[in-house]
Amino acid sequence: MNKGLKKPKIYLAGGIQGLSYADANAWRLKVTELLKPEIETINPLTKENMIIKLLWEGKGMPKKESSIESYPPWACNYIVWKDLKEIKSSSGILVYLPKNVQRPYFGTSMEIFYTSYVLKRPVFVFGDSKNRSPWINSFCIALTDTMEEAVTLIKGVLL
User: Fold this and answer.
1) Residues 31, 94: contact at Cβ < 8 Å?
2) Is the pLDDT assigned to residue 64 strictly greater than 50?
3) Residue 106 belongs to a domain with what CATH number?
4) Residue 2 lies in a domain
């Protein structure tokens, strides 16, 4: 798919809201190392997105669980705009949907739909390959249980 023109990029989608910055970022840092040097990752929690980190650090916001009610409207607009821009610049997305999740993944679901249906780019999901919504199954080209399996598939498709 890449044909040697540009290094492929994968946007790292998955839970953020309701998680600590460290918890939301841990899997992203690990998968970045697994994909190097052939594939570049786009991490929505990098220094370019300091606004999100500032929200977690309590700069006028709750220090623990962040909720959409705590975000000023301009911050919500910025987060969505930045995510869509980064997804559009990617070759596809990798999504982490862990087992037994007890909270919604509204943003992640929107990112999956946008990438697959609108941009017609591949979506790879890992975490729990069973008991997925028909919507998740329909818009993903691969669902695996482990990060390592997903990385192997991404490399096979994009390189």
Assistant:
1) yes
2) no
3) 3.40.50.450
4) no
Residue 124, domain extent: 9-158
How many residues are recorded in the chain? 159
Contact 140, 112 (CB under 8 A): yes
Q: How far apart are CA 47 and CA 25, in angstroms?
A: 12
Residues 76, 79, 80, 84, Cα dihedral to 10°: 170
CA proximity to 89, closest of 113, 112, 121, 117: 121
pLDDT, tens digit, 9 for 90 and up, residues 121-145 = 999 999 876 767 888 889 999 999 9
- Mean pLDDT for all residues in the chain: 83
Residue 82, amino acid: K
pLDDT for the residue numbered 31: 98
